[in-house]
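Need tokens for this chain, all 423 residues.
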Amino acid sequence: MKPQPNQRLSSQAMAFVLAGGRGSRLKELTDRRAKPAVYFGGKTRIIDFALSNALNSGIRKMAIATQYKAHSLIRHMQRGWNFFRAERNEYLDILPASQRIDESKWYLGTADAVAQNIDIIEDYDVKYVIILAGDHIYKMDYEVMLLQHVLSKADVTIGCLTVPRAEASAFGCMAADKTGRITQFIEKPANPPGLPEDPTHSLVSMGIYVFDWVFLRELLIRDAEDPHSSHDFGHDLIPQIVKYGKAMAHRFSESCVTSGLEHEPYWRDVGTIDAFWQANIDLTEFTPKLDLYDNAWPIWTYAEIVPPAKFIHDEDGRRGSAVSSLISGDCIVSGSEVRNSLLFTGCRSHSWSTVQHVVALPYVDIGERAQLTRCVIDRGVKVPPGLVVGVDPEEDAKWFRRTEGGIVLITQSMLDARAAALG
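Here are the structure tokens for all 423 residues:
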């Protein structure tokens, strides 16, 4: 495809979203769904952030590679992201691992997930491909990153964060010169390189890569033929480009989208129960670190048709109320006190119950006189009347999953096992 000088770069690009990850650190939250399909923020899923960034950036061609327990994710895509129109040259393809290339293998790595779909990407007729992880929370204008990629004539441009060096070992780390050219890339090193201007911080990869499609296509074909490769961008392709080509770093702060309320660029990997709980609870702050009310950069999702939230009963000890909380549609707070919590669609909180610092996923039903503090409740859980969580750590750990940070995860199977044991 020839570049069109009168078009935005995003109109000549496609977004390829890697959404096959299990997210095992989220424990039982990913027993029935992939990490990108996990709920976040009251009504959205984690993957909605990457897709919304692409849509808001002007990208109208997207592909989503799925693998692990993909039904919940695919259903969400079909319900919430089905507005693309082929007659307007818009596409959203869901690409499950379906053994299209070799009947003996699924997606072997992040690069292999793209390589197995080369023919589909070819049909898109695009000049640029943006590889995205589908499991992070952030707002970013990819057009800015595309422009840097084109102007620098890079082989690959990598989205980068600056993090404390002590935390950098969990990421792909890099060193870059003053021009932004990456001189070293190491996947999850024990001793991450520090920044020249600040040795206490490191430059790490966001898992966002911009390529010219012609270049990436040839790279993927060569990698697919290499029996020694793990077929992964971070382990194999990126280090190779750093060594033999031109890899450029793109600082997230240069393309982060803010409404004016955020004090610093916001990016979160909500890959643990503690991080998931904290990021959701952060949204209840007076001035949250992430502004979900920014209509200039909306987070698109499947918008269920549900009635408004409702608060009933008004007597001492039995007053339906919510303070510093997010209450989604179809919730009924019935004579219950909710504080610093986030209730997803369709939750019920019954009389004389107290809910504090709780993240309740859709259609949770909290029984009378329950006392819940600092916990995450999985979708559809029926909390029995009188249950107390968050007071006695030993009792919590006996029946539920309690994290090192003191957050309790409650699922229906855990409650069923508890009920059976107690008779």
